Amino acid sequence: MAVSVSVFLGFFVGLVVVGLASSKKFDELFQPSWAMDHFLYEGELLKLKLDNYSGAGFSSKSKYMFGKVTIQIKLVEGDSAGTVTAFYMSSDGPNHNEFDFEFLGNTTGEPYTVQTNVYVNGVGNREQRLNLWFDPTTDFHSYSLFWNQRQVVFMVDETPIRVHTNLENKGVPFPKDQAMGVYSSIWNADDWATQGGRVKTDWTHAPFVATYKGFEIDACECPVSVAGADNAKKCSSSVDKRYWWDEPTLSELSVHQSHQLVWVKAHHMVYDYCTDTARFPVAPVECVHHRH
Question: Is 252 an active-site residue?
Fold first, then answer.
């Protein structure tokens, strides 16, 4: 563990606490997990390609509990219909926890859709979708997951687009006892990704390429051999150590961030499972109690 000054935009500045040194090169934090011949390295840039033979994916070398993970991505240009580029955290096993960013390809000229999802103890079905307020194919943008014992925050260029709050006091399970790996991949999902699967992948535009840089992990690293409960204790603040993600100012969004989230939902959200009465005639418990 390293002692560092951690800055989490919109929350606090200049607090000296314990964290894991971040901002490293790809091969220091990650490793290819499949289709190594679909990886291309260009200096500090990593490119993953999808063609009609294979997609590709990578995973972190370690697992983590609590903290912040950020990757900068430039998404597939042009006609990317049918493709999905994903950035997510996940634990292992059937009762896993997972936080997903899934970037759903589009036909040329249509907005890119971002789908987020949260799995807790193996249960997902918590999809939200929004159209980004910029073209994510022309430049790099940062996508982040912040996680502590009080909330999970999905961010785009430091703007919160989704918050999953700890509502254990309302009987809603919260992911806080399983260390999670960090993953990204690109694959063909034309059975559902674009307009519900109506628009298929046009392989004449292949290879489809997603480009990455700026790999940052400021989180609590967890040995694989350590039990979940022990990791949770190890990665939580105590009288002997203070972790930046446990600071009181990080237990909820700032006023400014709350306003940002309201703006995102009002102007860019196109689907929210909480309002899908066809799927959920009775609103899920967390939808009733979430303030955001």
Answer: no
